Amino acid sequence: MWDPTLYQRYGDERSRPFFDLVARVGAEKPRAVVDLGCGPGALTAALARRWPGARVTGVDSSPEMIAEATRVIDAELGDVREWRPAPDVDVLVTNATLQWVPGHEDLLVRWAAQLPAGAWIAMQVPGNFDAPSHRALRELGAGYGLGEVLREAPVLDPAGYAALFGGAVDAWETTYLHLLPETGPDHPVLRWMEGTALRPVRAGLDDAAWQDFRGALAARLAAAYPARDGRVAFPFRRVFVVARTP
Length: 246
Fold this sequence. Notes:
Strand content: 15-25%
CATH topology: Rossmann fold
CATH class: Alpha Beta
Number of domains: 1
Distance between the termini: 38 Å
Order of helices and strands: HHEHEHEEHEHHEHHHEE
CATH architecture: 3-Layer(aba) Sandwich
């Protein structure tokens, strides 16, 4: 279960990679634009403002996210693994979604083959799975029997993704340095992770186990990401690809 409120705690930091991604999409007058993994819809609404003549649709597998998204965009509940592009989809965006989908490399190849000629695919995934935050998450999770849901390397590097596409490809990576303010008793990196990476952990534990896990992770995060002058420096690597079908 996704919680839109938790996810949007750091809305400015989470939205910047989206805008860096779509800025590299050169489509001028797309007929249809689809955002796979649209979440609460605010970023998808930005696509509608950029291309006002296009039919813009968001797709997400979370009923909670779709309930939020339909307030601002046309959105539908759906599984990205089953999605098929309509013949007029000229731009496909998927932002911070495919890391949750094992085998998504095959989906990218299939979508590229099914989209019309000259269509754009723009994707971004977190690439910080070797960061102290995620190493601590996996190490603790193994002790709670969560090893299968906390995968070590669920994404490729830019070269790996670029090799999937036959047309023009622009692939890169960026490490953002988020300076998270200390607000309240919880470590800010823990608060960040509760919106995304900790979701399957919370779903797999009862209340008592979750509180134990959360406390142990908080201690590790405080050691790995110390606060200085009221802020915590949180480096976050992300992987981007913008490809155009032949």
